[in-house]
C-alpha cells in the first residue's frame, strides 16, 4: 500500500542573471520533501541529483518553472557517467567542485559536450589539478567572497584568454556594490541573495509502490521489447505513466504535434530514455538505502541478462533474476516473503530461492564473480551453457556499461 498524494516542496530554484540583469537561467537546489526526510548532509550527492532531476523534469512543468530558461543542476562524478534522458537545451550540467579529474570524468564530460550539453564548473579555482576540465566547459562559476577586486579581475581575464566564449558566473553576491565589482571585473552571469534568494517549488508528491516499480523496471529491460508491449507495461503503473507523459509533453522535447497517448510518448522518448527514466524513478524511491546497493541491483540484473541472452527461453528472465536477487537487502525482508507478493515464472522463483536450474547457475555465477571467487564458480556446468571465463568477464563489462547508460 502507498500513502495518498500530497503537496510538498519538490526543490528550490534561484535565478541567474546576465550583465543587463535579464534572466539567464535558474539553479535547481535539493530540498527535503518534509521535515522527516533526510537533509542534504545525510543524503548522498548522487541521490540528491536524481531527486532534483526527477522532481524538476517529471513532477513539474520545467519550462514554466524556469520561464523558458535552462535549469542548472549539480552533478557528482558518479551521476556524470549516467545516461541523461533530458534535452540538452533545457539543462546546464553543473560539475560540483568535489569532482576531480580522472579518465572516466574527462571521458564523460567530452561525451556530454559532444551531445550538445552546456557544462558549468562549480566553485572553480584555476589550478593545475582541475585545469583539464576547461576544454569542455561553457561556464565557470566563481564564489565572489573568495576574491578581492584585483584577483577577481585577473582570474576572469585569464579564463577569457583561455576561451573567449567562456562565460564567467559570479555567485554569492549579496549587495549592489558586489554586483558592480563583479560586472566591472568582466563577469558575464550573476547569482546571489542580492538578486534573489532561493524559492521553494511546491507540487504533488505522488507515492510509488516500490515492489511494483521494480517489477516494471525488470520487464522494461527484457530484450526485444516492442513499443506496444512497453506501453502496456507502463500503463499498468499510474505513477510511471504520469511521469512519462509529463516528460514527453513538456518543453523538453520540441515537436510539431502534441502527445495524445502513452504509445505516442513511448515512441517520442525512445526505449533507452524510458529505461533510464524508469531507473531514476525507482532508485529515487529507495532513499533509505545506500546508493551502491541500488546500483548493484541494476548491475546484477544486466549481468544475468547478458549471461542468459543466448539461452533459448531464458533471455527474457535474466534481468529480473539478477535484479530481484537484491530484494531482501532493498526491503529488509526475507526474499521468499517478498517474491510471494509478485507473480514470477517458476524458473525465476527457483533460481532466487534454491539456485536451481540454468537461471540458478547463472545467478550463482554472478554472485561469485562479484566476490572475486573465481575458483568457486562451477565452470564445468557453465560449459554446458556455452559460457567460459572470457564470456563471463565480457558479460560483466557489458553490464557495467549498460548500468551507466540506464541510471
From TrEMBL:
Residue span(s) of domain EAL: 1-212
Domain HDOD as annotated: residue spans: 206-390
Protein name as catalogued: EAL and modified HD-GYP domain-containing signal transduction protein
The organism's place on the tree of life at top rank: Bacteria
Source organism of the structure: Kushneria sinocarnis
Signal sequence residues: none
Amino acid at each position: 500500500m502507498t500513502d495518498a498524494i500530497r503537496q510538498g516542496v519538490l526543490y528550490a530554484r534561484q535565478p541567474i542573471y546576465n550583465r543587463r540583469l535579464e534572466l539567464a537561467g535558474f539553479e535547481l537546489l535539493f530540498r527535503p520533501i518534509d521535515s522527516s526526510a533526510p537533509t542534504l548532509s545525510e543524503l548522498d550527492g548522487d541521490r540528491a541529483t536524481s531527486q532534483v532531476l526527477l522532481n524538476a523534469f517529471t513532477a513539474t512543468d520545467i519550462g514554466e518553472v524556469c520561464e523558458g530558461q535552462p535549469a542548472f543542476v549539480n552533478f557528482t562524478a558518479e551521476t556524470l557517467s549516467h545516461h541523461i534522458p533530458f534535452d540538452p537545451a533545457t539543462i546546464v550540467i553543473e560539475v560540483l567542485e568535489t569532482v576531480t579529474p580522472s579518465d572516466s570524468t574527462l571521458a564523460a564530460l567530452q561525451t556530454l559536450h559532444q551531445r550538445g550539453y552546456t557544462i558549468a564548473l562549480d566553485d572553480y579555482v584555476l589550478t593545475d589539478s582541475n585545469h583539464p576540465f576547461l576544454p569542455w566547459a561553457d561556464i565557470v562559476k566563481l564564489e565572489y567572497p573568495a576574491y578581492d577586486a584585483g584577483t577577481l579581475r585577473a582570474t576572469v581575464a585569464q579564463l577569457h584568454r583561455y576561451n573567449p566564449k567562456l562565460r564567467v558566473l559570479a555567485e554569492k553576491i549579496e549587495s549592489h556594490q558586489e554586483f558592480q565589482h563583479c560586472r566591472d571585473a568582466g563577469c558575464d552571469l550573476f547569482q546571489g541573495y542580492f538578486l534573489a534568494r532561493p524559492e521553494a517549488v511546491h507540487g504533488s508528491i505522488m507515492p510509488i509502490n516500490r515492489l511494483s516499480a521494480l517489477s516494471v523496471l525488470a520487464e522494461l529491460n527484457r530484450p526485444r521489447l516492442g513499443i506496444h508491449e512497453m506501453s502496456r507495461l507502463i500503463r499498468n503503473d499510474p505513477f510511471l505513466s504520469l511521469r512519462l507523459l509529463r516528460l514527453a509533453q513538456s518543453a523538453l522535447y520540441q515537436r510539431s504535434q502534441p502527445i495524445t497517448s502513452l504509445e505516442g510518448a513511448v515512441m517520442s522518448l525512445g526505449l533507452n530514455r524510458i529505461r533510464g527514466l524508469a531507473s531514476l524513478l525507482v532508485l529515487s524511491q529507495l532513499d533509505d538505502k545506500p546508493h551502491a546497493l541500488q546500483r548493484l541491483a541494476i548491475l546484477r540484473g544486466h549481468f544475468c541478462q547478458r549471461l542468459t541472452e543466448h539461452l533459448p527461453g531464458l533471455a527474457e528472465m535474466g534481468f529480473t533474476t539478477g535484479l530481484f536477487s537484491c530484494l531482501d537487502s532493498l526491503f529488509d525482508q526475507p526474499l521468499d516473503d517478498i517474491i510471494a507478493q509478485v507473480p514470477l515464472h517458476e524458473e525465476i522463483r527457483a533460481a532466487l530461492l534454491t539456485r536451481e536450474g540454468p537461471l540458478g547457475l547463472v545467478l550463482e555465477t554472478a554472485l561469485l564473480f562479484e566476490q572475486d571467487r573465481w575458483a568457486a564458480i562451477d565452470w564445468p556446468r557453465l560449459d554446458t551453457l556455452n559460457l567460459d571465463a572470457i564470456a563471463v568477464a565480457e558479460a560483466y563489462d557489458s553490464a557495467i556499461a549498460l548500468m551507466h547508460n540506464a541510471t
